[in-house]
Design a protein that fits this description.
single chain, alpha/beta, MetI-like fold, Rossmann fold, 2 domains, eight-stranded mixed β-sheet, 21 helices, 14 strands, about 50% helix, about 10% strand, elongated
Length: about 600
């Protein structure tokens, strides 16, 4: 995670200074803070006492510096209580029976709706005035937000196959919670603690200022603010000192927490979790390749590996088709290339380069300019509340630094470039006013707002009728021919791939089983799975009196793939070796590779 923004740096500096102050403050200024001087009682600022003195003549500045340790320790204790209680409450619904889950969820919702400060004051009054009651009160006030966050995160994990398998195996709810649920949501919870520390520190200061927190002779920043507030109009510096300390500490923790959360979000959601597993040898790189992928693997907790060692190369002006049944890993491969694998997925690769550069080292702006993605459902790519032209213009403004007028003009030009009639009018319309084919063209136009070197089209014609489908395929070919951009076209329809692409990559159960030129697809396919896909396509010569050809069985789930060939159970040529050993992807002629023991 990178936290190099000015706000992040400022937050890190402030937090570091506060921690240093907590360590050295009592050691250096402890005696000065406790020294009573009857001759300097209730004095204002002076050379000897820059922030004045209190009702016993003690130096306020020294007391502010010393109070940093106690203030931070109290905040840490309150945050720990809130985090532990909230995490347990939020995670319980994912492992409790339905009735218990509903009860806990209702309780969390009620607590979230209750004002946090009132909840803290109520708890502190019951627990007793003083530091102990204030810490408990702030901890209870923090807990509902942790519970809501944990509940949201754990709900995404609770439906995973490995959790279902644990339930079926009779694993206890406690073990499911501690072993399967919490480890997979730990990162955002830990990041939230940093933000909560700032809130806890401010809350504790507020409690002490109201007289419900730390009581004399102990003192924290809030207590010092309480003591000095009565003199704010006479000697304001005695109250301003602790107020500044509280503000700086709170701002520091919140800035740092926000920065860490944003950095983690980019890592988890936008794919910066790309880990090179082995550096490629100097001679392996293809200098002409727009996209070069070597040994790409995507893994999720619990040993689920939906993409396993995928390698492919796309050259300028070339369209490579990625084909296979649903669940074969095609779309997840595209997501890994584009940096869109959702948390907690982890992407590893020997090489993952775009235009000769490692994608992991490229900024979001560089990736957004060089890579365009077209998804199956354009409504998920277009905001229904915004006009089409404005959404396209935003790409040029964000990634190219264009003015709003320049970006709008380019948006109209790009809409016309994809053969949309009356592009200026389309730019003023909302997505729901366009047909499915027009929306898909608009999404392609959005990708062309920059100068993409690679276009990834993930089943862009699946939801369209055959006439519009052909128009979209023709448009993709025109785009690559005109701009010399490379394209990765993903589809489960091998007939469409055969019509559009130059090279075909066939995937099965997360692995490439064959790669071949498109002209060999109909008659030269070698892998039994590829041939079965082709045979399942009817043509004009198909005997209609016979049932359509199909592939028996089903593709294994990512967690069920064995050590051998994943297609062995469905293959008529399979031998015992196929189930025991994984066949490597080997050359089978010019630009042709096959992974099969029987070829």
């Amino acid at each position: 995670m990178r936290i190099r923004t000015p706000a992040a740096i400022a937050g890190a500096v402030l937090v570091t200074l506060m921690v240093i102050l907590a360590v050295i403050g009592p050691v250096i200024w402890g005696d000065t803070a406790d020294k009573i001087d009857a001759a300097a009682i209730l004095k204002g600022a002076s050379d000897a006492h820059p922030l004045g003195t209190d009702n016993l003549g003690r130096d306020v500045l020294a007391r502010v510096l010393v109070a940093g340790r106690f203030s931070l320790l109290l905040a840490l204790a309150a945050t720990s209580i809130g985090a532990v209680v909230g995490t347990v409450l939020g995670a319980l619904p994912s492992v409790l029976p339905p009735r218990g889950a509903r009860f806990v969820t209702g309780a969390v919702n009620a607590l979230v709706a209750f004002p946090g400060l009132l909840l803290a004051m109520f708890t502190a009054v019951i627990a007793g005035l003083g530091a102990k009651g204030a810490v408990l009160g702030i901890g209870v006030a923090i807990a509902p937000s942790f519970a809501r966050l944990t509940q949201t995160l754990s709900a995404t994990v609770a439906g995973a196959d490995y959790v279902s398998a644990a339930r079926m195996l009779g694993v206890s709810r406690t073990r499911i919670l501690t072993r399967h649920v919490l480890p997979n949501i730990a990162e955002p919870l830990i990041l939230n603690i940093t933000q909560a520390l700032g809130g806890a520190l401010l809350g504790l200061a507020g409690m002490s200022f109201l007289g419900l927190g730390v009581q004399p002779p102990a003192y924290d920043w809030g207590r010092l603010l309480f003591d000095g507030f009565g003199r704010i109009y006479v000697t304001p510096e005695v109250a301003i000192g602790p107020a500044i300390a509280v503000a700086l500490a709170g701002i520091g923790f919140n800035l740092l927490g926000d920065a860490l959360a944003k950095a983690a979000s980019r890592s988890a959601v936008h794919g910066r979790r790309v880990v090179p597993v082995a550096p490629a040898a100097p001679g392996e790189a293809d200098p002409e390749a727009v996209l070069e992928v070597r040994d790409l693997t995507v893994t999720f907790p619990g040993g689920v590996t939906p993409v396993r060692g995928v390698s492919l190369t796309v050259l300028p002006g070339q369209i490579v088709g990625l084909v296979g049944e649903s669940g074969s890993g095609k779309s997840l491969t595209a997501s890994a290339i584009g940096g869109l694998v959702p948390y907690p997925g982890v992407v590893t690769s020997g090489r993952l380069a775009l235009g000769g550069r490692d994608i992991a080292e490229m900024s979001d702006k560089e990736i957004g300019t060089a890579l365009a993605m077209v998804f199956q459902d354009p409504m998920t790519s277009l905001n229904p509340a915004l006009r089409v032209g404005g959404q396209l213009a935003e790409v040029a403004v964000v990634h190219q630094g264009a003015t709003r007028a320049e970006a709008s003009s380019r948006a109209v030009d790009r809409l016309g470039h994809v053969h949309l009639p009356k592009p200026a009018q389309v730019a003023r319309q909302h997505p729901h006013e366009l047909s499915g084919g027009m929306r898909q063209r608009a999404v392609i136009a959005m990708g062309l707002m920059g100068t993409p070197r690679l276009v990834i089209a993930d089943e862009p014609t699946t939801a369209l009728d055959v006439t519009v489908q052909r128009q979209i395929l023709k448009l993709l070919r025109e785009v690559t021919d005109e701009t010399n951009a490379a394209a990765l076209f993903i589809s489960h329809d091998i007939a469409v791939v055969g019509e559009l692409c130059d090279q075909v990559v066939v995937m099965y159960a997360g692995r490439v089983v064959e790669e071949l030129p498109v002209e060999k697809l109909a008659t030269g396919a070698a892998h039994p799975y590829t041939r079965a896909l082709i045979d399942s396509l009817p043509d004009m010569d198909t005997d209609r009196s016979l049932p359509l050809a199909s592939i028996p069985g089903r593709q294994p789930a990512p967690s069920d793939v064995g050590t051998g060939c994943a297609f062995a159970d469905r293959c008529g040529l399979a031998t015992p070796r196929c189930s025991a050993e994984l066949p490597p992807l080997e050359s089978y002629g010019k630009a042709h590779q096959v992974a099969c023991w029987e070829v």
